[in-house]
Amino acid sequence: MVRGRISRLLVRDVRFPTSLGGHGSDAMHADPDYSAAYVVIETDAEDGLKGYGITFTLGKGTEVAWSREGRGAPGNSSHPKCSVGLVGQAGGKACLEVTRGHEEQMLAQGYPAYTTSCAWLGYSDDTLKQLCTQALKDGWTRFKVKVGADLQDDERRCQLIRDVIGPEKTLMMDANQRWDVPEAVEWMSKLAKFKPLWIEEPTSPDDILGHATISKALVPLGIGVATGEQCHNRVIFKQLLQAKALQFLQIDSCRLGSINENLSVLLMAKKFEIPVCPHAGGVGLCELVQHLIIFDYISVSASLKNRMCEYVDHLHEHFKYPVMIQQASYMPPKDAGYSTEMKEESVKKHQYPDGDVWKKLLAAQEN
Ligand SMILES: C[C@H](O)[C@@H](O)CC(=O)C(=O)O
Ligand SMILES: [Mg+2]
């Protein structure tokens, strides 16, 4: 029920200097600064109702998002690594059939997650070893490693990870679109010995038939293809599913601009019996997508087989309702809304270029 009219729309350029630590780096994005065009929609409602939205970018992309959200109509951006998610905190109730037992199971055990935070491409071997060791101690059993820039490096890093996590734990690989189609097949036949469950974004996300070719070629190696974090509408997903181009479908709560678009993809995945394993590598993406995947389990797929949600261990402290991870699982959020609201203090500090964090960094760069 809408209790007021929109009275003001604010867009803030918020950037976190993650590139300083190599966090978030991959074969296509060497030095990302996890960032967002953060939108606050104010209303004249008596209770002060507000809506919050984020468009995830890697820094510069915020300027593109800004021009679309701040001055143009909100919508999907085609800029690399730039995702749109605009949602009112009041949120509607999207309701299919609710499976009570599954709801209780989620509340007790949470939704299974995997971690990407141990093996960004820019991390040293020592960091990689130390983070994998710690993650194992913390109960993680599923790990994703970035690959795709240099085969020898990939082999060394994958061996290091397998040495730490052992042969039984689940390992996924992510090439972030780096290869062309034959290269992807060749490269993965060299990495098959590390027993990856999937190769993610092996080639251009727009190349649906290319993904289908790769999928087919990797079947004998027991490796699936995962993709979706760059898919901006349900039609692309429909074609990927029809072409048998993916074995794991990765919705992105922001990229698919709106909950409705995400829901239609969840329903199609159910029809094609393809597991949904959401993308969450970015600022705020874990906060948002947890809602969708828990909804998927309770009301759509009713299955956890081959399913898990990505988790990255960065920047949650800047959110008013941060995700809660217990025993490598997402515990269902209990607050109303989509968990999108950021802390005002964090926004102020990280606003680009005039927040304290950036004033210092930019001054240091000048000297
Ligand atoms: C640039 C981002 O960190 C990207 O590497 C995230 C990603 O591909 C993932 O989490 O998957
Ligand atoms: Mg990825």
Automatic annotation (TrEMBL):
Catalysed reaction, written as an equation: L-fuconate = 2-dehydro-3-deoxy-L-fuconate + H2O
Pfam hit, one: MR_MLE_C
A Gene Ontology biological process term: amino acid catabolic process
Residues covered by the Mandelate racemase/muconate lactonizing enzyme C-terminal domain: 125-220
Keyword entries, A-Z: Lyase, Magnesium, Metal-binding
Cofactor: Mg(2+)
The protein's enzyme class: lyase
GO molecular function: L-fuconate dehydratase activity; magnesium ion binding
SMART domains (alphabetical): MR_MLE
Enzyme Commission number(s) from the entry: 4.2.1.68
SUPFAM superfamilies linked to this entry: Enolase C-terminal domain-like, Enolase N-terminal domain-like
PANTHER family assigned: ENOLASE SUPERFAMILY, MANDELATE RACEMASE, MITOCHONDRIAL ENOLASE SUPERFAMILY MEMBER 1
Membership in a protein family: Belongs to the mandelate racemase/muconate lactonizing enzyme family. ENOSF1 subfamily.
Designated name of the protein: Mitochondrial enolase superfamily member 1
Species for this entry: Saimiri boliviensis boliviensis (Bolivian squirrel monkey)
Name of the coding gene: ENOSF1
